[in-house]
Amino acid sequence: MSRDVGLQQLVGVDGGLIRFGPDQPLALDSGGQLKSLEIAYRTYGKLNAERSNAVLICHALTGDQHVASVNPLSGKPGWWTQVVGPGRPLDPERFFIICSNVVGGCMGTTGPSSIDPETQRAYGLSFPMITIADMVRAQVMLVDALGIETLFAVVGGSMGGMQAMQWAADYPERIYSTICIAAAARHSAQNIAFHEVGRQAIMADPNWQGGEYGPSEVRPEKGLAVARMAAHITYLSEPALQRKFGRELQGDGLSWGFDADFQVESYLRHQGTSFVDRFDANSYLYITRAVDYFDLAASRGGGVLANAFTGARHVRFCVLSFTSDWLYPTVESRSIVRALNAAGARASFVEIETDKGHDAFFLDEPVMHATLTGFLDAAALARGIK
Amino acid sequence: MTAASESFREIVSLVQPGARVLDIGCGEGALLEMLTEQKGVDGRGLEISPLGVQACLSRGLAVVQGDADRDLADFPSQAFDYAILSSTLQQVREPKTVLAELLRIAGRAIVSLPNFGHWRVRLSLLTRGRMPVTASLAEPWWSTDNIHLCTLKDFVLLCDELDIRIEQAAALADGRPARRIDPASALENWRAEQAIYLLSRNS
């Protein structure tokens, strides 16, 4: 294995980039392998002497490794400072918190915008198809490299929750607890449909050029922005949109044209245009596909979800859903809990009352935070973490 | 000792050490915690209130938010040794279905109930002509959660109908420790404020 010189020092200063050479290829569900893999990650806090306090956070579709520190691209605070930080449920004073950019991503981990060592050009669509299980296998390589045998917790929301469940299915002996927030054990037809709209918007942009746009050339920004706009609607609830924007206008009156007359239009356009500054269109294609392909019952349970968790009876599970989440509604979380019960696992489940929709898991949700604190504190006590 | 703690103490005494237990309507987890500490059970809970579930999680208990009427179907058959329903059967919409579900999920069920046949209840109804409000039935009729009250005699008849065997019965009254009783005793149907049953399938 080749890795950045001085990894140990890098860990001390919150992560970095780790390289795996052809001697350690990442085997992929699609049949191929990645012979050269870089994983960009962040860590917060210190691994204790017993190596028992490591927590892996899995990020969502368009998330990244910058959980609780400033994102260098956007200059904004980390995406989960509500949950990770001093006095928060995941306090770096107590836990060693790891988050890595998923394989296929565009924030430093190898993805379609990375240079293919064999051609010395960006992979583009020659990048192999990836799955949630592939993302998890890459995380296992990172966790191994950091010298951690057992994770105290694997935590994730949305696509991150899918990864957390994949960990429980594939590496149950390496985790003590799992927190799965606003996720599903499979992507529904409606969810696949929304992803398809996003992908078609990207591929319809003439600048996409069959995925062959380069880093310095013109990029399919219009298509990617539309993809983001459509997806963003699914992250909010109807009441939240109404409360935030109603039919409020941007200016004094109607333009009698197609400018952004309504505040909700202006908001969505902003979501779209700011997204293209930090995200790669091909990564969006690959990662949405990975989520579409996710079906844990089919891939690990022979059609029965409970079978996927037969090795995870010792794992403490905390499953959370939000009442107004229509992307991954409560019924999806309940089917996970039913499967965990059937497998005899230690399942806990709370449905949190909120009108903020799917995105509630990023936001200030006191009940969610109190629930996470209670679950994590009790598990830490049982695990002997001070 | 309060009536609730005497009731919990009796329930704990009925459970074999190390058993798999599902506590339905587990509240903030006090009974599950007692069972875990005193009997080393492998416990799970079902609780309707999110705040109750949250309190349980803080105690390190594995509890699922849900409703006894709707969500028992999510539990596999015979996954537990005991299904416990403490002072909850009178609050569910379909007591018959719930009772049958308990013995599908678990080999034995432990059910506790307020007795509507208690002499104070009968006297209050007879003399005042109004719905009784007593220590174990503390809310007026229009705000009570107790929508399916019964007497000890009613419960025995329902068990007969569902082919359920009452292995043991105990009565609680006036905050005193539980006493073993004959479930069919007409006298106990006057004396017991609350009854606790250990149930199993007849066949």
Strand order of the largest sheet of chain A: 1-4-6-5-9-10-11-12
> At the fourth CATH level, what is the homologous superfamily of chain B?
Vaccinia Virus protein VP39
CATH superfamily of the largest domain in chain A: Alpha/Beta hydrolase fold, catalytic domain
Radius of gyration of chain B from CA coordinates: 16 Å
Quote the average pLDDT of chain A: 93
**Rg estimate of chain A, integer Å:** 21 Å
> Could you please say which CATH topology of the largest domain in chain A applies here?
Rossmann fold
Query: What would CATH call the class of the largest domain in chain A?
Result: Alpha Beta
Q: What's the architecture of the largest domain in chain A, going by CATH?
A: 3-Layer(aba) Sandwich
Oligomer: heterodimer
- Placed side by side, the strands forming the largest sheet of chain B appear as 3-2-1-4-5-8-6-7
Q: Please identify the structural class of chain B as seen in this structure.
A: alpha/beta
Largest sheet of chain B: 8 strands, mixed
**CATH topology (level 3) name of chain B:** Rossmann fold
Give helix and strand order of chain B, one letter per element, not per position.
HEHEHEHEHEHHEEHE
Looking at the overall shape, the CATH architecture of chain B is 3-Layer(aba) Sandwich
* DSSP strand content of chain B: 15-25%
Integer average pLDDT of chain B = 94
Q: Would you write up a description of this structure?
A:
The complex is a heterodimer of chains A (386) and B (203). Chain A has 386 residues and is an alpha/beta fold. Chain A folds into two domains: 7-189 and 295-383, Rossmann fold (3-Layer(aba) Sandwich); 194-289, Rna Polymerase Sigma Factor, Chain: A, CATH 1.10.1740.110. Helices cover 36% and strands 15% of the residues of chain A. Chain A has helices at 7-12, 132-145, 159-170, 189-204, 221-235, 238-244, 263-276, 281-293, 296-300, 305-308, 330-343, 366-383, and strands spanning 16-20, 26-27, 33-34, 37-44, 54-58, 96-100, 115-116, 121-122, 151-157, 175-181, 316-322, 346-352. In chain A, the strands form three sheets. Chain A has an eight-stranded mixed sheet, with helices on both faces. Chain A has a two-stranded antiparallel ribbon with strand order 2-3. In chain A, helix 3 links the parallel strand 9 and strand 10 (175-181). In chain A, helix 4 runs antiparallel to helix 5, helix 4 packs antiparallel against helix 8 and helix 5 crosses helix 7. The longest helix of chain A has 18 residues, at 366-383. Chain A starts with 6 loop residues before the first helix and ends with a helix. The model of chain A is unreliable at 1-13 (pLDDT under 50). Chain B is an alpha/beta fold and 203 residues long. Chain B has a single domain, classed as Vaccinia Virus protein VP39 (Rossmann fold, 3-Layer(aba) Sandwich), CATH 3.40.50. In chain B, 35% of the residues lie in helices and 25% in strands. Chain B is globular, with a radius of gyration of 16 Å. The termini of chain B are far apart. Chains A and B meet through strand 11, helix 11, strand 12 and helix 12 of A and helix 3 and strand 3 of B.
